[in-house]
Each structure stands twice: as C-alpha cells, then as structure tokens.
Amino acid sequence: MSTFILYNERMELATSLKLLIALAIGASIGLEREIHQKKDHHKNRSGALLGVRTFSLTTLLGCIAGLLYVDHLILSTLFTTSFILVIISNYMITAFVTKESGITTELAALMSFLIGALIALELFPMTVTLSLAIVLMLILAYKEQVKNVVEDIHTREIKAILSYSIIAVVILPFLPNTGITFSQIPYAGQILQTFGHRIGEWQNLEIINPFKTWLIVAIITGVDLLGYILERMFGKGRGLIVTSLVGGFVSSTATTQSLALQSKHAKQINHLIAASMLATFASFFSLFIILLPLNPVFTGRIIPTLLILVVSFAVASGIFLLLSRKQSNVEIDKASAQSRKIFSVKPALIFAGLYLSIKILANIALRLFGESGFLITSGLAGLAGLDAMSINIAELSRSAIDMKTAVLAFLIVNAVNLIAKTLYIFLQGKREFVVKYGLTMIVIIILSFAGLWFA
After folding, report:
1. How far is CA 174 from CA 96, 169, 215, 301, in A?
2. Are 242 and 266 in contact (CB under 8 A)?
3. How far, CA to CA in Å, does 240 sit from each of 255, 284, 446?
4. pLDDT digits over 349-367, tens only?
5. Would you list the domain boundaries of the chain?
6. pLDDT at 188 over 60
7. Based on C-alpha coordinates, what's the Rg of the chain?
8. Max alpha carbon distance in the chain (Å)?
9. How confident is the prediction for the chain on average, in pLDDT?
C-alpha cells in the first residue's frame, strides 16, 4: 500500500513539474509578445495585448490536453479542437475588421499549445522541447531582422544554402565511418623497413576517416555560413562591437589584423584593442561549436579553460572600453575580416588538408618521441591556427593520449596562437597597439593555465 502511495506521489510530482515548466515557457513567450506589441505602434490587430497571461494559459492548456491524451482521449481532443477553433475564429474576425492578414501571433499561440502538449507527452527529450521553445522566442524576438534578411535574399544566398545542404545532408551520411590505417596503404611496410621500423608498430596508425574528415568540412562551412547570416542580421550599421563579435566568430585572426591596420591611422586605439579582444572572445564560442560534436568528453574537460579565456577576454575588452575616451563609430573593414563569398568549400578543404597533415605528424611524433614530442608538434601547429590542432587533440584524446595531456596540449596551442596574433599585429599595427595587446595576451595566457587544475 505504501509503495502505491509513493508511486502516486511521484507521478503527481512529475505532473506538477510539467505544468510548472509549461507555465514558465508560456510566460516567457508571452512576455516577448507583450513587449513587442507595446513597442509596436499598431499594437495588436484587435487592440488587445496577447501577453504573459494568454500564453501562460495556452501552454498550460496544451500540457493539460497532453496529460489527458492517454486516459481521456475524447476530453483531450475536445480541448485541442476548441482551442484551434478559437484561434481560427479570432484570426478571421480581426482580419475582417482590420483588413490585415498577418498571423504571427496566432501561429505562436498554436506553437505554444503544441509545446505544452509535448512537455506532457514527452514524445521528445525535454531538452529538445525546450530548444523548440527557445527557437520560437528567437524567431519572434528577431522578427524584423529575419524579415529584412528574407526580403533582401539573393540567388547567391540560395545557392550557398543548397551547396551546404549537399555537403551536410547528401554527401556526409553516405561516407564510411571507418578509419583507413597505415597498414592498408600499398608498400607502406617496405617503406618502414627502409627506415628500420616494423609495420607492427605502425599498422594501427589511422591516416584518414572519410566520415570524420568530411564532418569537419561540414562544420567549418556551417560555421562560416552561420557567421554570414549573423552579419546580415546584426553586423551592418551596428558599430564596432557587434561587427567585431561577428568577425571573430568567423576569423578572429583576420579581424584582429584588420583592426591592427586601422590602428596606424587612429589617434586613440583603446577601442580598437577592446574590439580585438571581443573578436577573440567570440572565437572560443565558434571553437566550442566545432569541438562538441567531435568529442563531447574532451570538450567538457576544457570548459573550465574556455570559461577562463572567455571571462578574461570579456574583462580585458571592458577595461579598454572604459579607457577609451569616447565610443568609436569606426567599423571593421569586413572585406579584410572575411571573404565576401558567402559559401566556399575551398577554404574548408584546405583546412581539412591541414587537419590531416597535423594529425599524421602529431601521431608520428607521439609514437617516435612520446608525449613530449606530441606537445612540441602541437605548439608548432598553433602558429597555423587554433581550430585545426584542437580538432586533432580532441580526436587523439579518445585513446592515444590521456585527458590531462590533451588539456595541456590545448593550452599550449592556444598560447602559441595568441602569441602568433601578437606577432601579426607587430608587423601591421601601431606600436602602442602592439604593446597593450601583447601585455594583455601574456596575462591571459598565464591565467589560462589554471585550467590544468580542472583536467
């Protein structure tokens, strides 16, 4: 009897939690709608605000309909049908009166009802349902930006999206997810014997995995395409800060070099240094997106390090913004920061080639010289960029190296990469820019090694 009561209590607790989540999501969506409609000069077509209360009740009703679905199908269907009829009737009446045909709010209400039902039925994991709610709020919040992008879209944007779809949807799923090892290469054994090595030591050395290599191409091109979309939505006319964040998401090195060139002709450079810090700040979010699907465990281990770096660059940019006497309206030369092409697979293929070369060299150094050789190779690879070697480290941390060595290698690569950026600035920027940027990099590099404590 006690077991039955406990079971019921747990069920009631789960049901209560679902209802609370539905209410919270509905309130969040309604808050966005209410703020938008209050700012909108035309308000709602009917003159009434559909805000927090309406959307809270909408998701709550959807959740109740979902909870009733299993044991009380007729009642659940009645709730769902009645709600849909109310939405349709409201739309038809207000559209007839005001002669306006927009249905954004009505669709948002239907989507909110569906989200409530999904919460109750648990057809998808809760994280997926919450993600749908977040996407809905983003679409509603940035309605004007999305509308402007869609209205200004051109054939080349369509071609870019279709090209990326071919890479990520058509080609990637059909590639074999099997590594091609050194022993499968013709005459590899004879070549090794020439240098006094046996094939047994090298036969399991993976040269290429077609699926993983093309996955990198898909991720890199996807990040570039996302960066372009963000630039179209927020980058133009929003000043140095937003443009630096967008440029850093695509290429922090190129953005920093562009800012260094601007410093030669600028009387005040603190705002430029702040922008360069923000560009690097944004690049770590891009790196996180790239590494997470490749090796979630390694990505989780370097999260403390990434947090240290993100916070350090955020604080540094804030300090230099405060030091600047007035806010600069100078914008980055986006043509220097990134290619004007929306989508190009060539840079991604070059990156994949660089990735494979570094991977092979790092594996060879690991076998010949142990972890010390691997760390030296990683440091040298950092001169070429952070992403390629970070991907290799993520791959090797699965089996070839322990996690602490992987984190140390990531820190070394990042340190070398930041030093390399300073050298690039030295060749192109103003002396004051170089000194301030370089000293800041030294402090941040030292702080970043605190990430070893969490490895």
Report:
1. 51, 9, 11, 31
2. no
3. 11, 19, 28
4. 775 776 677 667 766 766 6
5. 2-141, 155-174+209-454
6. no
7. 27
8. 88
9. 75
Helices and strands of the chain, counted as H and E runs = 17, 2
| pLDDT for position 328 | 46
| C-alpha dihedral sign at 269, 275, 278, 283 | negative
Distance between terminal CA atoms of the chain?
48
In the prediction, which pLDDT does 312 show? 93
User: How confident is the model over 62-85, as pLDDT tens digits?
Assistant: 999 999 988 888 888 998 998 889
The answer to whether the CB of 366 falls within 8 A of the CB of 374 is: yes
Dump pLDDT digits (tens) for 93-148. 877 776 666 677 788 889 999 999 988 888 877 777 877 888 788 777 766 666 66
Cβ contacts of 455 within 8 Å, gap of 6 or more? 301, 403, 404, 407, 408
Helices (H), 99-204: 104-121, 126-141, 143-151, 155-165, 188-194
In terms of Cα–Cα distance, which of 389, 410, 153 is closest to 298? 410
Is the CB of residue 433 less than 8 Å from the CB of residue 273?
Answer: yes
Place of tokens 């035309």: 42
pLDDT in tens, 372-406: 777 777 777 776 668 777 887 888 787 777 888 88
CA distance 206 to 363: 9
CB atoms within 10 A of CB 214: 20
What is the spatial distance between Cα 168 and Cα 219, in angstroms, rounded to a whole number? 8
Residue 181: enclosing H or E segment and its boundaries? Answer: strand 180-181
Q: Which of 242, 243, 25, 201 is nearest to 118 (CA)?
A: 25
Q: CA-CA distance, 94 to 330, in Å (whole number)?
A: 46
Closest by Cα among 318, 320, 327 to 433: 320
CA distance 202 to 143: 56
* Two tokens, residue 8: 């019921």
> What is the reported pLDDT for 311?
94
CA–CA dist 381, 361 (Å, integer): 10
At 360 the three-state DSSP class reads: helix
Give pLDDT, residue 121: 87
- CB-based burial, 120-154: b 16+ in 10 Å, e otherwise: bbeeeeeeebbebbeebbeebeeeeeeeeeeeeee
Q: Read off the pLDDT of residues 270-311 as tens digits, 9 standing for 90 and up.
A: 888 888 898 889 889 888 888 888 788 888 889 999 999 999
